[in-house]
Amino acid sequence: MAHCGFSEPKAKGQAPDGIPPSQASADQSTRPVLFEIFGEIWTVQSRLGQGVSASVYRVSSGRAATAAVKEFQTDSQGGDYGYHKERSVLEDIQGHKNIVTLYGVFTNHSCMGVATRCLLLELLDVSVSELLVRCGSGVQEGRPQQGHSMWLVQHCARDIMEGLSFLHREGYVHADLKPRNILWSPDDECFKLIDFGLSFKQGNQDVKFIQTDGYRAPEAELQNSLARAGVEGGSGCTAAVDLWSLGIILLEMFSGIKLKDTIGSKEWKDNNAAIVDHIFASNSVLCPAIPVYHLRDLIKSMLLHDPKQRCTAESALLSPFFSIPFAPHIEDLVLLPSPVLRLLNLIDDSHLHNEEEYEDVLEDMKEECQKYGSVVSLLIPKENPGKGQVFVEYANSSDSKEAQRLLTGRTFDGKFVMATFYPLSAYKRGYLYQTVQ
């Protein structure tokens, strides 16, 4: 018979999907309630984002499947240029693990008689923009500014380099790389590129104004200025603009600082390499020296003013920075969802060495964790590494996220639960590494 169990945490006022109650109620009144997609009804759960030309929604079907719908507004000329543009690019570049998956396209007919064009897309999770916001929250709590771990910077850099390398080989330029357009996939355990509305074939640039302020390469800045003045800007920009944007993103991730003001300064335009050196010198006490130097040199090679001298995505992947093995920080495993949950601060040695108590704890844990979704496996190692930690593999990341949200702050046998995610690939290999605190 089980001898210990969970107790409930204090109630918290929270609307579904982490939306504040006031925002959730306002959102409910303005967003669609459902979409009919390929003869099946999908319910809208929340609005994930809204831009000038399109809105993105989280949707679920009766089969409990989840996806994202990008619904395009008709443009000012009454056409569907934005929809056709992104659809054509996505259909041409499908099949790479670091590019969002397009499931299909459909037309939505609202009860008002308005028809809108839609893309049905893979549902992804936290963006690099959100990771940067969470990274900077420590300053408000009195801690010094600190960027993300080298493990996380390397993970993001490699994933996006590989996505860009594929994209550029296919002849495309993304042309709007920024933190908001890089999202984490919990089930594939990698970062992916989204939003190809400004993308174009290299040598055939059909978009006048490209990239976002703060992530815009010097040659794109010049071209945009010429376009505003009504002057044709030559043959257009190349894939090198994407490397510039990614260099800025990685510098922000390493430093934990938004660099828009810095990049707009005269000092940056005169000598950005000196500013990069200064940022790395300021943060180097927190990281091992050699990996820091490799990352610094990689970023500097991406931020050369002459686009012809900038590294390519393919050559950047050969940087020695990517050959260094890093362990994740515990904060990384809180930030990046996966189907595996790791529960800490629960099990005493007495539970591990008494076989009857150990079996009782296993039974208790499985029973509790199954309340939040389908449990595929559950492991409590009796020896290091991972001794006394509880690893719970769920059927999908949605279930593990719900479990993480509801278990954190509860108590088990008088102890407060701490729940982080854990990489599925490492768990499947039986690799229970010790994370850096």
**How far apart are the termini?**
36 Å
Unreliable stretches covering 5 or more consecutive residues: 10-29, 138-144
β-strand percent reads 15-25%
Main-sheet strand order equals 2-3-4-5-7-6
CATH homologous superfamily caption of the largest domain: Transferase(Phosphotransferase) domain 1
CATH first level of the largest domain: Mainly Alpha
Function: Upon serum stimulation, phosphorylates CDKN1B/p27Kip1, thus controlling CDKN1B subcellular location and cell cycle progression in G1 phase. May be involved in trafficking and/or processing of RNA.
GO cellular component, one term: neuronal ribonucleoprotein granule
Domain Protein kinase: 42-322
Keywords: ATP-binding, Kinase, Nucleotide-binding, Nucleus, RNA-binding, Serine/threonine-protein kinase, Transferase
